[in-house]
Amino acid sequence: MLQAQAAPVHSVRDLKIGGTESARQAGLAFRRPVRASSSHVEAGADYRPESAVHGAGDTRWSSEFSDPQWLAIDLGTPRQFSRVVLEWEGAYARSYAIQVSDDGASWREVYSTTRGEGDTEELKFAPVTARWVRFHGTKRATPYGYSLWEMKVLP
After folding, report:
1. Which end of the chain is more exposed for a tag (fewer CB within 10 A), N or C?
2. What pLDDT is attached to residue 10?
């Protein structure tokens, strides 16, 4: 004898409002204003800085093929955070720093390495409050530019 299965029970916590989950996962940098030291442009491709903060996995920011280069994100207001996630394309940084600023002009370092590994790097540091956060690459691991699918800033 087969028993009918009860319909699943749902609650308000199961409800997802369009866009909020992806914004939470993308963190504080999601669709924030961004600027960079350079952007690589070639026929049919434009690797603009905005591509590193829009949450889409099919576009990226790429710098010119030289050192140093940087990508800076304006969080709009001072925000507290303690992690940055760099999602690299094949062209990544060997040596770089994460820097923060209150005005977008004077920078202080909160993280640095000379052993960047590419792929996805989650960088953890003591909580800091700042309006701006910047990736500052000083040595490329490949002959190409620095190339990020996404840069996330997380609490």
Report:
1. N
2. 43
Q: Show the low-confidence residues of the chain (pLDDT under 70).
A: 1-26
For residue 105, count other CB atoms closer than 10 A to its CB: 7
User: Residues 39, 60: contact at Cβ < 8 Å?
Assistant: no
Query: ∠ at Cα 140 (137, 144), nearest 5°?
Result: 115
CA atoms lying within 13 Å on the CB side of residue 121: 22
Amino acid at 120: T
Indicate the SS3 state at residue 52.
helix
What are the chain's domains? 28-154 (2.60.120.260)
Determine the residue type at 8. P
